[in-house]
Design goal:
This protein is mainly alpha-helical. 50% of the residues lie in helices and 6% in strands. Strands 1-2 form a two-stranded parallel sheet.
């Protein structure tokens, strides 16, 4: 059906193009006969007809780009878990071109753009979910502050490591807790977070999950 509509539109535009160019040539020919302008008027008329046909073609083409509300898919509101959203985000990221990351799903307030995930969830979540741009951890509405805190602390930890060549944590701490005092003293952090975060052995990423043992295996 779409192919038929496309062919119909092309045929209609081609017919219009021929009519307008022909009209331009005839107008130019009449001007030649009346005023003796030779081929100049005929050429001008032809060019005028071609230009008008081109402009009309652009105008009609631009109208087709705008999607009508009737053609947009209406997704149902559904109940989903954080795990469902994680799977949808993973599937979404696998479809992204090289060099584009899943963080394009995350809005300024760390909430996830549910409309982009709707095709993978087969619906729109009934509540908001939030994601850390630094670690990709996903949280529900009641834990959205954790996502924001993780991003803030992760950036501070990365800056500290870059400047001091070591992680901001106390020696022999079995939990590898982020030492906020060190980050504050180094001016990598402006305020102390209210939650404990821990440094993992995954490229120094931080987590809110308390480890059962030293994450480096020591």
């Amino acid at each position: 059906m779409q192919s038929e509509k496309k062919l119909e539109r092309i045929h209609r535009n081609n017919s219009l193009y021929v009519i307008l160019v022909t009209a331009g040539v005839l107008i130019g020919l009449i001007a030649d006969l009346l005023y003796g302008l030779l081929p100049i008027a005929m050429l001008s008329g032809a060019l005028g007809g071609m230009t008008l046909a081109f402009l009309i073609g652009i105008s009609s083409g631009s109208k087709k780009v705008i999607a009508s509300p009737e053609t947009e898919h209406v997704w149902p509101v559904i109940e989903v878990s954080a795990e469902d959203v994680k799977k949808a985000v993973r599937a979404y990221s696998e479809k992204l071109p090289k060099g584009v990351y899943r963080t394009i799903l995350v809005k300024e307030d760390n909430s996830i753009d549910a409309e982009q995930l709707a095709p993978f969830l087969k619906g729109l979540p009934s509540r908001k979910f939030y994601m850390s741009k630094e670690t990709y951890d996903i949280f529900g509405e009641d834990e959205k502050e954790i996502a924001i805190t993780i991003d803030k602390v992760q950036k501070a930890v990365d800056l500290y490591v870059k400047e001091h060549k070591e992680f901001p944590m106390l020696p022999y701490d079995p939990l590898n807790r982020v030492n906020y005092y060190q980050l504050l003293q180094a001016h990598c952090l402006d305020t102390k977070p209210e939650i404990e975060l821990y440094i993992t052995n995954y490229d120094g990423l931080v987590t809110h999950i308390k480890p059962k043992k030293n994450s480096t295996g020591n």
